Amino acid sequence: MDSPPAAQPVRKVALVTGAARRIGAAIARRLHADGHDLALHYRHSQADMQALQAELEALRPGSTLALQADLAAFDRLPELVARTVGHFGRLDLLVNNASSFYPTPIGQATPAQWDDLFASNARAPFFLAQAAAPHLRATRGAIVNLVDIHGDQPLAGHALYGMAKAALRMLTKGLALDLAPEVRVNAIAPGAILWPDSGKSTQAQAALLARVPLGRTGDPGDIAAAVAWLASADAGYVTGQVLRVDGGRAIGG
After folding, report:
1. Between the N and C ends of the chain, which has fewer C-beta atoms within 10 Å?
2. Known catalytic residue: 161?
3. Measured over all CA atoms, what is the biggest interatomic distance in the chain, rounded to whole angstroms?
4. What confidence tens digit (pLDDT) does each residue in 36-62 have?
5. Which one from 42, 102, 161, 237 is the annotated catalytic residue?
6. pTM of the model
């Protein structure tokens, strides 16, 4: 009598926001390499998302789902979770990576900028987590939020951005309490990993790196590795924490 076919291992599923490029794409590649199937959110970067999805699908067909949405549109947030679970049948990890970043000098800031910066950096992570919570509880999953050193140390001209990231820091701690013991919730605070798309002068780069004890920028892979660790069983007793991946910048003055 033939033996029944061996059961296929269940692949974990991660939903990553802002996954098309930069740090989000590095996180997606690392989680995919670690065996996750991926729901990959993007807003405008369609060409980048198509390229990333083609790359990952070539490695493991059927392993990705691209989801376009403006995270400022409230009704799209539970939809992202529902489409992820509807497609893959489960959810093990939510990575709140998507972020808006730009200056809002005092005297020039507008309510629309307030709403935009808080929508991507604080409101969307909360309501995505709320929608994902029942599914993450079922899988004893995790949430990883991408915060910022400037949610703790202010950046001149960026008060609204810093406020929104500070809210995300507190959200990380609040969710860690509210979703325990089934779901672990942590955050990562990157330092100088990538320069802004708008650029940064050589002088400004040198001044910033002078405050970094390791004396150099990091790499998106550093953040991706931290996400992978926080999502893994190796970090099974870690929740409510903000992990600085900043080359020591927070202690560098």
Report:
1. N
2. yes
3. 80
4. 999 999 999 999 999 999 999 999 999
5. 161
6. 0.92
